[in-house]
Amino acid sequence: MDTSRDIVDIGVNLAHRSFQADRKQVIERAFATGVRTMVITGTSVTGSEAAARIAREYPGRLFSTAGVHPHDSRNCAESTVPELRRLALSREVVAIGECGLDFNRDFSPRPQQEKCFEAQVALAEDLRMPLFLHQRDAHQRFCEILASGRKQVPAVLHCFTGTREELKALLDMGLHIGITGWICDERRGTHLRELVKEIPLDRLMLETDAPFLVPRTMPTKPRDGRNEPAFLTYVLETVAACLSKPLAEVADATTRTARSFFRLADSRPG
Ligand SMILES: [Zn+2]
After folding, report:
1. Ligand 1 center to residue 208 CA distance, Å?
2. Between the CA of residue 75 and those of 89, 207, 238, what are the distances in Å?
3. Cα 266 to middle of ligand 1, angstroms
4. CA–CA separation, 154 vs 125, rounded Å?
5. How far is the CA of 158 from the centre of ligand 1 (A)?
6. What pLDDT shows up at residue 268?
7. Strand partners, 8
8. What phi and psi values does residue 52 have, to the nearest 5 degrees?
9. In terms of DSSP bridges, do strands 37-40 and 131-136 run parallel, antiparallel, or are they unpaired?
10. What separation in Å is there between the alpha carbon of 268 and the centre of ligand 1?
11. pLDDT tens sequence across 148-192
12. How far away, in angstroms, is 210 Cα from ligand 1 center?
């Protein structure tokens, strides 16, 4: 990998406890691999505060999102949106989310998931901030809520793993698409290798979703099964191969897309 390159990991859970002991080294390894910009995912109010704190230590290189994941929406209270709003004013917070619906695990009751999602879509609109979205087994309701609540802010569905029809619906709604190491998985991700060709490069972004989803194309997989942002290069390689395009072209295009989507150019110091 050309280390002068800047590739952007738009979804990395650096506030996750598995990074507690060696977070600094993980971040340095990512920088050394060319992953020079990262957006740390916030999944609860406390998690989003932690994400912002980490981002603050690397101004202009690390950013974060502020939101409540559908799994956590059962803890959504009266105070949640005001807390997210306050957090969203911080310089390093560049999107509202991760928010959305997860009817696969149903860790939170569906009516609560919907209410919490709707509130965050409204908050993003109010603040004119991009949305970082999660959806599993809830495509229909997810699209309905977005269609009624989202007016003008850009939105990315992170870790897209769905069908051709779902992808078409999302692109028709103007959404951006995040691709993770799921595409490197020969057991369950092969359909994505075809579908990724249908995503215009100005709507496509890359992410590790670390510590989850170790790319299965890695010749030597980490012993502890932990994914990290440095491994984004494996996602990039697979995507470039699927698109039959040079690595550098896909790296540059997805970086340009991410920088413009999250308006990162404006946030760079100096
Ligand atoms: Zn997610």
Report:
1. 11
2. 22, 27, 38
3. 26
4. 9
5. 6
6. 44
7. 37
8. -65, -40
9. unpaired
10. 26
11. 999 999 999 999 999 999 999 999 999 999 999 999 999 999 999
12. 11
Q: Is the pLDDT of residue 267 over 60?
A: no
Distance 194 CA to ligand 1 centre (A): 22
**33-50: per-residue pLDDT in tens?**
999 999 999 999 999 999
Tokens at residue 40, please?
């740390």
CA distance 47 to 58: 18
Residues 14/38, Cβ–Cβ less than 8 Å: yes
CA 261 / ligand 1 centre spacing (Å): 18
Residue 130 token pair: 């991009």
Q: What's residue 2's pLDDT?
A: 53
Q: What distance, in Å, lies between the first and last C-alpha atoms of the chain?
A: 27
What is the DSSP code string of 24-47?
A: HHHHHHHHHHT--EEEEPP-SHHH
Query: 184 CA to middle of ligand 1, Å?
Result: 17
Beta strands in 165-221 (DSSP E): 176-179, 204-206
Q: Which pLDDT score is estimated for 4? A: 62
Q: How far is the CA of 61 from the centre of ligand 1 (A)?
A: 22
The predicted-structure confidence for 84-130, as pLDDT tens digits, reads as follows 999 999 999 999 999 999 999 999 999 999 999 999 999 999 999 99
Q: Which residues of 143-172 are buried (b: 16+ CB within 10 A; e: fewer)?
A: bebbeebbeebbbbbbbbbbeeebbebbee
Using the mean position of ligand 1's atoms as its centre, give its distance from the Cα of residue 102 in Å.
Answer: 9
pLDDT at 269: 45
Beta-strand pair 131-136/176-179: unpaired
